[in-house]
Each structure stands twice: as C-alpha cells, then as structure tokens.
Amino acid sequence: MTATRVLVLNSGSSSLKYQLLDMRDASRLATGLVERIGEATSRLVHTPLAAGAGPRERTGPIADHDAALKAVADELAHDGLGLDSPELAAIGHRVVHGGLRFTEPTVVTDEVLTEIERLIPVAPLHNPANLTGIRTARALRPELPQVAVFDTAFHTTMPEAAARYAIDVETADAHRIRRYGFHGTSHAYVSRRAARLLGRDPSEVNVIVLHLGNGASASAVSGGRCVETSMGLTPLEGLVMGTRSGDVDPAVTFHLMRVAGMSADEVDVLLNKRSGLVGLCGDNDMREIRRRVDEGDERAALAFDVYVHRLKKYIGAYYAVLGRVDAVVFTAGVGENAAPVRSAALAGLEGLGLAVDAELNAVRSAEARLISPAGSRVAVAVVPTDEELEIARQTHELVEKANARK
Ligand SMILES: Nc1ncnc2c1ncn2[C@@H]1O[C@H](COP(=O)(O)OP(=O)(O)O)[C@@H](O)[C@H]1O
Ligand SMILES: CC(=O)OP(=O)(O)O
Ligand SMILES: [Mg+2]
Predict the structure, then answer these.
(1) How far is CA 274 from CA 253, 280, 307, 388, in A?
(2) Which residues surround ligand 3, an ion (CB under 5 A)?
(3) Which of 148, 151, 155, 363 would give a disulfide with 182, using CB separation of 3.0 to 4.6 Å?
(4) Does 47 reside within a domain?
C-alpha cells in the first residue's frame, strides 16, 4: 500500500489551521482550527469530513503550539486518522520566512530548522510558531518526511527593481535587507485559479491579487510570475492590516525612540500589534467594524476609510506596474467576505476599466466568481484561497519525486 495522505499545518501567531488530505483526488478527510492559543479561552474546532460527521468543538486553555498540535493529533486519532497511520505520506508545514535560501518546498532537516530559526527576527510573529509545529510533528512521527513550504518562495521572481530598497547597497547586502514578500502560497494559488475562472492560461494573464486576511498583502502577477508585492523584509510593510500598520515613514520609528523614549522592542510591538485596524478603532475584525460603521461610529468609519484608501492606492500602483490588467482578485477572510471593502476599493476607477456589479458583489458564496459587470474591460473576481491545498500539493509532489529516486 502506498501512503497517499498529507497533513498540512498552518501555524499562525495564535492559531493553528490544519487539513488532512488524500492526494489521490485531493479530497479533504478532516479540517480544523485551534484559535486563541495561549489564552484561557482557546478553542479547537475539528471537522471529520471523511466520517461524514459535523464539527466537534473543545474549549479550554491550550498553552502553546506544541499542546495545540497534540490536541489535534488526539482528535485525528479519535476518527482513526491518527498521525501513526501508515497511510500518512508526509506532513506539510507553512513556513512564513524562507529568506534568500529557500525558494522551493524543502524537506526538513536539522540544518533547515536552524536556518528557519535564524530568520525569526524578520518574522517574529510567525516563524517561532512554524518551528514549534515542525518540531512537535517530528517528535510524534520521527521517520515521516516533513516538508516546509515558504510564504516567500513565490516572490523570488520579483525583478531587482522591485525587490531592492533604495538604501546603501553594502549595508543592505551585509544584512540581507531586501523585499521578500509573503502569503506567496496564496498569491500563487489564487492567481492560477483566477486565470482558470477567466478561461485563460496563467501564462497569458496579468492579475492583481489582494490577499486580505489578518495579515494583508497585494501582488502583481504577470504570466504566472510575481513581479511586485506589498510586504517587504518582514510582513509589516504595505497594506493596513488587522493589527499591523503597513506602510509608515520609517522615521516614525526613530522619532518615537528619540522623542517618546520608546525602545526598539516597544516600537516593534506598537507597529505589529497595536496598529492597523485595531490601532485606529480598537477592533481588528472587519465584521465588527462594518457593524460599528453602520451604527454611525466615527472611529470605525475612519479605520475603514484608511484601510480602503491604502488598498486603492496599491491597486493603482500595480496597474501601472503591470501596464495591462486582466483581473483584480480579492481573497482571504476580508477579501472573500466583505463586499463593502471590495466596492469601496474600486469606487471611482471606471476610467481604468474597473467596476463592481452591486448585485454580484452582494452574493455570498464559497465559489470562485466574477463580480464585475458583463463586458467589463478588466474582470473583478472573488477567489477563495486554499493555502492548505496548495501546500499539500507541493508537499506530495516533493515526496513523490524523492520516492521515485529511491
Ligand atoms: N463575513 C465577514 N465579513 C467581513 N470580514 C470577515 C468576515 N469573515 C471573516 N472576516 C475577516 O477575515 C479576517 C480573518 O481572515 P483570514 O484570512 O482567516 O486570516 P488569517 O488566515 O490571517 O488568520 C477576520 O479578522 C475578519 O476581519
Ligand atoms: C505573513 C502573514 O502576514 O501571515 P498571516 O496573514 O497569516 O498573519
Ligand atoms: Mg491566512
């Protein structure tokens, strides 16, 4: 019997999303989410799809990602899908920062772990959680291939003009300071899926992808290759996010250090955790913000306006970078669900051939769909992302290749 299953782990700073897939047909056997890890109110929701059963929920403190993964392993074992199953071929891990070194999915070794650890300062919210996930999974199944799939990989095709910061070249190179970009697995999957929605080959189309989740980033993809993206050295640059500022004048940092007496770590926490939507209005969930806007709350309206203004600015910039745009595509939690964000971001851009059909935009669906009026020069689409499926495919492909060589 050949093992055909892949478990995918997507560890965020305080959450763990997972999917178990059978790669014979890419069907999902189980999915789930652990949220609020490290808090007293942690919650695990596990859906055993293969068993045809509904979601099971568990609440109560889960201290860290190690405990979270062990709880997930217990849930899977309960359905006969445990990590000890001989049908499990590999575990695929989302790793956010791969630096210059990792441009492809990579089988995890001790040396690979050391390198991911070295990159913690440039992905402080993400790489530590990713590492814990890998270490715990290895401890549970030491002989099983563990594959790391990097958020940065898709962006390594960016031209030097887009990847370089205009700072002293020797200093930048000595410290590997450049624009890496993140959410690449999502940008790759969504740009390909959007091409299919248009009935075109990815190699023929230019698309702008707007990945709007807790973290948010835009990318310009030409013929299937990333040519520009909004995140930089770290996942802090670019769009306004749930708790992150996105673009600010870098002088804000040393101004706060000199004038407000803040330490580098305090400014780091301010920009990464107390800024963005939460900094502007106290809430980082777009559902809550929209509810407050509808009630006439001015702080929430300001947060919404700043968010959408930044988004519109990036759409215009990436239009210019690409020259010709076939589609603007919204994805991730906010992009897939928040119709007011989509319509506001494209309002007034009819001159660029961009428009949103109000009725199509209001439709709630989990399917990839067009929301531009028929006959629009540029398509506008909503494409649900599936980072887990993409990670599973890349993991499976790598393991198959390695097996074929044996
Ligand atoms: N129905 C909805 N309407 C508006 N925003 C939503 C809706 N559902 C989810 N979101 C937004 O999506 C965000 C989470 O997006 P997601 O892609 O799951 O993020 P991440 O993977 O970064 O944790 C939430 O913070 C929330 O603001
Ligand atoms: C890189 C990044 O910002 O990821 P997330 O949106 O999962 O926080
Ligand atoms: Mg995400």
Answers:
(1) 14, 9, 15, 28
(2) 213
(3) 151
(4) yes
Any domain includes 401: no
Reported ipTM = 0.98
DSSP secondary structure code for residue 294 in this structure: H
Sequential DSSP letters for 46-104: EE-GGGT---EEEES---SHHHHHHHHHHHHHHTT--TT-TTEEEEEEEES--TTT--S
Tens of pLDDT, residue by residue over 308-350, are 999 999 999 999 999 999 999 999 999 999 999 999 999 999 9
Quick count: other Cβ atoms within 10 Å of Cβ 389?
A: 17
Nearest CA residue ID for atom 9, ligand 1: 333
d(CA 248, CA 246): 7
Same domain membership, residue 85 and residue 221:
no
Residues sharing a CB contact under 8 Å with residue 260, sequence separation 6 or more, in sequence order: none
Strand partners, 34: 16, 44
> Shortest CA distance to 349 belongs to which of 384, 377, 307?
377
Whether 151 is catalytic? yes
Segment among 46-60, 160-174, 257-271, 381-395 with least mean pLDDT: 46-60
**Domain-embedded: residue 319:** yes
What is the Å distance from ligand 3's center to 215 Cα? 7
- To the question of whether residue 336 is assigned a binding role by annotation, the answer is yes
Q: Is any atom of ligand 1 closer than 6 Å to the C-beta of 20?
A: no
For 347, list phi and psi in degrees, rounded to 5. Answer: -60, 135
- Are both 96 and 21 inside the same structural domain? yes
Domain-terminating residue out of 150, 166, 186: 150
Question: What range does the domain containing 84 cover?
Answer: 5-150
Number of domains within the chain: 2
In the 8-state DSSP scheme, what is residue 86? T
Tokens 């969930």 identify what position?
A: 285
| Residue 84, number of CB atoms within 10 A of its CB | 12
**Strand, helix or coil at 376?**
coil
Beta bridge partners of 106: 148
